[in-house]
Amino acid sequence: MSGSTHSAETNHTGRYYMYAFIAFWEIIVLCAAGCEGHHSYRRYSRGVVAPAVVVNDSMTEGDTRLYVVQFRAQDQQTYTVQSHFNTLGHRYYRGQMARVVYLPEDPADGRIDDNAEKYGVAGGCLLMAVFGLLFGGAVYYFFDRPQRLSA
């Protein structure tokens, strides 16, 4: 008798930890999406657009290319930045001109003016949050719903 009670308590505790982990995951990815979204919004709403020259590219997996560009900021210094994401449908070549958006107080954190750079991290975090909710819903639906008693 006490063995079955202990087993039910252990099962309940395991579910509690699983839901706590899913909630923690959601909080982390939503905070990351909010922070990066806010930073991206600041950069693209108050940033300065500067012409840049593609100086290098690196191929990672498959067709994914990350670009390295140089630009001259308002302080007349030259900065080099690397893209964080493969540009969506746009291929740059060495020596080609691109555009960089940067905040005047932090030109070293400039980004290539491209939708992938604009929405990449925040969009990825939101996508992970959706997958986390779907996973939590699937766990609840298949493993944790109250069982109907058969008559």
Please provide a brief summary of the model.
This is DUF3592 domain-containing protein. With 151 residues, the chain is of the alpha+beta class. It has helices at 2-46, 115-144; strands at 48-59, 65-72, 78-82, 97-103, 106-112.
What does it look like?
The protein is α+β, with helices and mostly antiparallel strands. It has one domain (2-144). The protein has two helices and five strands; from the N terminus they run αβββββα. The chain has a five-stranded antiparallel β-sheet, covered by helices on one side. Strand 1 and strand 2 (65-72) form a beta hairpin. The longest helix is centred in the first third of the chain and has 45 residues, at 2-46.
Tally the beta strands. 5
Uncertain regions spanning at least 5 consecutive residues? 1-6
Overall residue-averaged pLDDT value: 77
Fraction of residues in helix:
40-55%
Residue share in β-strands: 25-35%
Per DSSP, the total helix count is 2
Question: Could you give a short account of the major beta sheet?
Answer: 5 strands, antiparallel
In spatial order, strands of the major sheet run: 3-2-1-4-5
Radius of gyration: 24 Å
Total number of distinct structural domains? 1
Q: Could you give the order of the helices and strands?
A: HEEEEEH
What structural class is derived from the secondary structure elements?
Answer: alpha+beta
Give the N-to-C terminal Cα separation. 25 Å
So what's the overall shape? elongated
